[in-house]
Structures are given as structure tokens and as C-alpha cells.
Known about the structure:
Layout: E1 14-16, E2 20-21, H1 24-34, H2 39-42, H3 44-48, H4 59-69, E3 77-88, E4 97-109, E5 114-125, E6 130-141
Antiparallel strand pairs: 1-4, 2-4, 3-6, 4-5, 5-6
Pfam families: MaoC_dehydratas
InterPro entries: HotDog_dom_sf, MaoC-like_dom, MCH/BMMD
Protein name: Dehydratase
Amino acid sequence: MIDQPFGELSLGQRRRSHGRTMTETDVVNFCGLTGNWLSIHADAEFSKRSLYGQRVVQGGLVFVVVNALLGFDSSLVEAFYGVDQLRFLKPTFIGDTLHAESEIIELRDKGEHHGVVTTRLTAINQRQEVVLSCEFSLLIRRQPLLS
């Protein structure tokens, strides 16, 4: 997502990730990790009678997978700073392949050693549908940390 120090970034920079298919294992593991065993995620028979006719991948899982698809340079990223206007625009199903797209929409100084970078982050499935949209902010170093 961010591969340059704060001072080298510019508004409008874009990135697109590789694809990642959401699996049943992902969903079941996330159920166990979070305790979110809602029937729409965990019960195939219940889900057949739901609005979508099948199990839906948890929104929280979609968010964490998609923001990580673009990658992070730990020498530059100091911290996750926040997320705003997070929306799940379409459901994501087991077997859907997602990729992430980001565009830098705001750069803001944050002290002598950092800046806040805000990107418009979207998740797009194999049908070219936007399934998630948000403004995703990171605290970025002005100089990379040395290993």
C-alpha cells in the first residue's frame, strides 16, 4: 500500500493488488477467532433460506484481508491510524476472489517524524463489483527505520 516515506507520497497515487479467493477455511477460522458464529456465516442450511441464498463472508474478515492485500512496508508504517466511512456495498461469498484498489486522497503532517496518509480503499470481486469501500489511514514515517 505504502512503499515510500511520507514526503515522497502524492495525492492521486494508486495501487491495485493481486487477487485472493475467500475460502470456507477463512470463514470458519474467523468464526472461531472472533466468536462470530452467526448462522449467515456458519450454517449452510440456514443460509439457503436467507436473502442471499448462501453463506456470506464476515464483513470484518473482508476488511482485514483486503487492507492487507496491498502490503505494508514495516520500515515505513508506524501504525494503523483509523478507518472512516466503511461500507459493505455487496456481499462477499465463499469462493469469491477479491482484489484491493487504493488511491491516496489526503496527506496530513503529524509532527516532525510522521504524516497521516488517507487512501480510498475498495475491494472488488471477480464480477467487477465493489463490495467494500472506506477511507483507510496510516501513520507513516518521514524516514524508514533501518533494520
